[in-house]
Each structure stands twice: as C-alpha cells, then as structure tokens.
Amino acid sequence: MNQTKKTLLLVDDDSAHRTMLKAHLGSEGYEIIEAVDGDVAVHLARERHVDLVLLDLKMQRMDGLEALAEIHKHKPELTVIIITAFSSVENAVEAMKQGAFDYVTKPVDSDALSLTVKRALDFKSLQQENSTLKQRLGEKFDLGNLIGSSQPMQELAETLALVAPADATVLITGESGTGKELVAGAVHHNSQRKDAPFIKVNCAALHENLLESELFGHEKGAFTGAAEQRKGRFELADKGTLFLDEIGDMSLTTQAKILRVLQEGEFERLGGAKTIKVDVRMLAATHKNLEQMAEEGSFRQDLFFRLSVVPLHLPPLRERPMDIPALAEHFLKRYCDKNRKDIRSFESEALEALLAYAWPGNIRELENAIERAVILCLEEQILLQHLPVQVRQSYADNSERPFAIRPGLTLKDMEKELILSTLRQTDNNRTRAAEILGITRQTLQNKLKEYGLT
C-alpha cells in the first residue's frame, strides 16, 4: 500500500520520543508534521491538510484531552490516535469516549503502532467511500422505506438507480411480505413520471369481471349496476405509472387485454366502442413463478416476456438476517410514534429471538410483530414476552444460540456479533459465512477489516 500521500501530525513534547516515532513512520512512507505541544497541534490541524493525528496525553501547555476536544471542534472527522503511558490508560479510554480512534502505550511498540495507524487510515478511507456512495445514491435515488445494508439490498439499490429513470416495464418477484410494493413505489418516485399519478391494483383481490372494469373502466349500462360511466385505472394512470400487484392471479382473458395495452397503448372500456389511447409505464409483481406458469400454459408467454424486460427479485428476510435489527428499529420508532409511546430499545433476549426466527411472512410479519409488541409493552424496552408466540417458541426450541446479544449493544455491535457468531458456526469458512449472512465474500472481508477482525 502506497502511503506517500498520507500526512500524519505527530504531537509530543518529548523531542527524543518524537524523533524516534518520526524516523519509524517516515521510513514507512508517511509525511510527518511535528508539534511540540497541544496548542500547536490545534493550530496545525486547522491550517494544514492532515490525514491522522498521533497525540500524546501528557503535555505541559495543553494536554491531549483538551487538544482532542479543540481539534474535533474544528475538524470532527479527523482521526486521532492517543499515545499514553501504561499508568494513564484510563485517560486514554476517556479520550476514546470523546472520539479518539484508538490508543498505543509507551514504550511504543513499532509494529503495533504501524498496524494501528494503518487500521485507522483504512477505516477512514472506508468511511469516506461510504459517505461518497450515500451522497451519490441520495442525489440520484430515494429508497423511501426500503431498509437494509445487506448485499442483496445494496445490489437492489444499485439496480433500481439504473432502472427507475428508464421507461421499461419491470417485473418484481419475491415471496409475500418482502416489500414488492415498496420497490414499485421507489421506481415510480425516482422516474421521469414521478410528478404524474402512481396507481396500484391488487389483481388477486378482485373477481375477473370486476378486475376488467377496474382496469379498463366501463360505460353506463355496460352491466347490471353500471349506473354511470367510470374511468379505469389505465386512464387514471395516463402519463404516470400503473402497478399491477399479484399479476399471476389474472385470468388469460384479462392477460390478453393487458398485452394489447403494453404493445399498442390502447383499449376500450367495458361496453364501449371508442378506442382510448394512454401513455402508461407498467410495473408488475407476483409471488408466483410466472416462467413456470407460462410453460404450463396458465400464463401467457408473450405477456411474460413483455413484463420481464427488467426482472427484479426480492430475497426473503431469512436470507438477509443482517437487515433484521435495522428493520426492527425502524418499525419500533414508527409504532411508538403512532401509539405515543416512549420505548427506547429491545431487551437482549427479544433481539436474539427476532434474529433466530425464520420469518415466513417476511417483512410484513416482522412489522406486525413489532406493532403488537409496542401495543403490549408498558416498559422502556421490548421484552421477549411481548413477541408473538411463534417467535418465542422458535427461540425456546433453538437450544444452540447462534449469537448472544448483550444489553447496551448498538446496531453496529450487533452486526459485528452476528458476523463473528456466523464465522464460528462455519468453522471460519468465510465463503459459507457470507452466504448465510446474505452478503458477498468481498463485503464480508470489508466488514472484517472495518471492525479490525482481519
């Protein structure tokens, strides 16, 4: 790794010690700026480009803790490593609480110092890359309520960012409750049609005749009860987007009419003779295997190919367990706000149970479980007893706890714990661990590096 462009600010009032550290770090290709005391370091950090600060705790004019606070007041993103005598480790830990990245003890071990500096710079680089990516995604694509940092969700976000601005038909597949409607909404709201109507139809909820009337509209007297003319969803969606949910439940007759609209952009209302032209982008979703249905003859093959110009698949929640904590926190906040409750977090056993359960109903089932828990909870934490019986039973039956969540863990801590426990389960087989976690092997490697576990 070429370090020549990295600049370190070395702060120590002991000139001999400073000279020794400068010689070692300089030999590794770093550019070194020296400061003889904390007040000088604060000035240099403000005025010069610095990638990392090595800051001694004990100095005469301004000690390390005070200098750390002043440096972060002006440059909160600047990485700082504390240098301390072994007897002052408590102060070094206090410095870490105040934002220092890590500390090294005197007498400084050269190899340990090199490793700590490299780890700090690698972590800073990763933070900058993540920040840049988030900014670019934020500028180009609004994910709305699509939540998750797992590899499948990252890949989905990247694909959506490319697909949404185009005008292609999109087929969204996945089990019930995986969030297909949210994906459709994200496509529309990031498309050129975002200011036009977004119309949704659940094809499974309506009988064939009612569905045709709903989609294409009807003229007065077209059938018993048709007391007046009514526009269908295609007309209402003109210049916008029409989302057909559970399109696999549609009859072959209705499928033929949908195909005509896709190919020619026209149709007639039920009971009408006038051909109506529309400009509609169509999105469709199903939990069924349309390709197999097309082979069996229960779904039109030509319509299947027209719909699946851009296929998007949503993985079930059990294949992306790393997203469960973030989703649970999201739903906790939503239903606390809705029910005017002040529940701060999940008790450790409750979180373990959420992570251990397979969630056959996917995100929808998780959301319902959290809403129920919020309603039942009278404490400041969601407890195991507040979760549905099937979640508690699954937890009780799982005698081998794949991970252990301790009170006070952050979401980052939980992610680290989940990675470590999965590696233990797989005897440190990183390829298998990545598959279980729903991420690529490279992403797992990056996570391990981020947490200093390499």
From TrEMBL:
The modification 4-aspartylphosphate is found at residue 56. GO terms for biological process: phosphorelay signal transduction system; regulation of DNA-templated transcription. Transmembrane segments: none annotated. Coiled coil: none annotated. It comes from the Bacteria. Residues 146-375 form the Sigma-54 factor interaction domain. One of its GO terms (cellular component) is cytoplasm. GO terms for molecular function: ATP binding; sequence-specific DNA binding. SMART domains: AAA (SM00382), REC (SM00448). InterPro entries: AAA+_ATPase, AAA_lid_NorR, CheY-like_superfamily, Homeodomain-like_sf, HTH_Fis, P-loop_NTPase, Sig_transdc_resp-reg_receiver, Sigma_54_int. It is found in: Cytoplasm. Keywords: Activator, ATP-binding, Cytoplasm, DNA-binding, Nucleotide-binding, Phosphoprotein, Transcription, Transcription regulation, Two-component regulatory system. Residues 7-121 form the Response regulatory domain. This is Two-component system, NtrC family, response regulator HydG. It comes from Malonomonas rubra DSM 5091.
